[in-house]
Amino acid sequence: MRHDIRLGIVAAAVSILSAGCIATQEWTQEVIGKQQVEVDQHFVKVETGIREHGERLDRVEIRVAQLDTGLTETRDVLRTALPRASSALPPRTVPPPAAPPSRRTLIGVVHVPFAFDRADLDPTGEAALGAIVKELRDNPQMTLDLEGTTDPVGALDYNLRLSQRRVETVRRWLVDRGIDRTRIVSSAGRGPLVDASVKNTSKRRVVVKLMRTGGD
User: Which of 68, 85, 144, 211 is the most buried (most CB within 10 A)?
Assistant: First the structure.
């Protein structure tokens, strides 16, 4: 193509000379030389652009090939790793069912009496507790709940503390006689008993609830 353009330039120059133009031969050669330089520069630019475009295409093809290789390697890694991961999982264990709570049944109530504004045991209270100790030794499944009360005379806060002191006296007396602490399931002072049908002398007490654990 470059050769054809050069031939055209030469032919134009020859036709100008043969037509008898006033331009000199030197001027004609200078014009031809400039045009030839411009044509060469144009072709150099075109060839450079084509070469750079080809290089960019080559780089794109390399990147696509690298991406395809990376995807293939990733698939291979996943195929080999997933079975190992699943096989490495520990077997699922099912926790054993929780044991049902032990059933407690009330089988008797004993009142341990106290004197007015007192938290120490008198002979009557010790006798009542002695009978409870015997029952506990004869029945290993038996447990106790303790509830202390007072009469309504005096301030509420004071009577709450007094009822708790009475409970602690009974609990300590039983433990000192060999009764395991765990068999006394609950112990609480309830404060004054306001039931008008109960005499004040009967309100000064600790109620001992005998409970049987398990069974019907």
Answer: 144
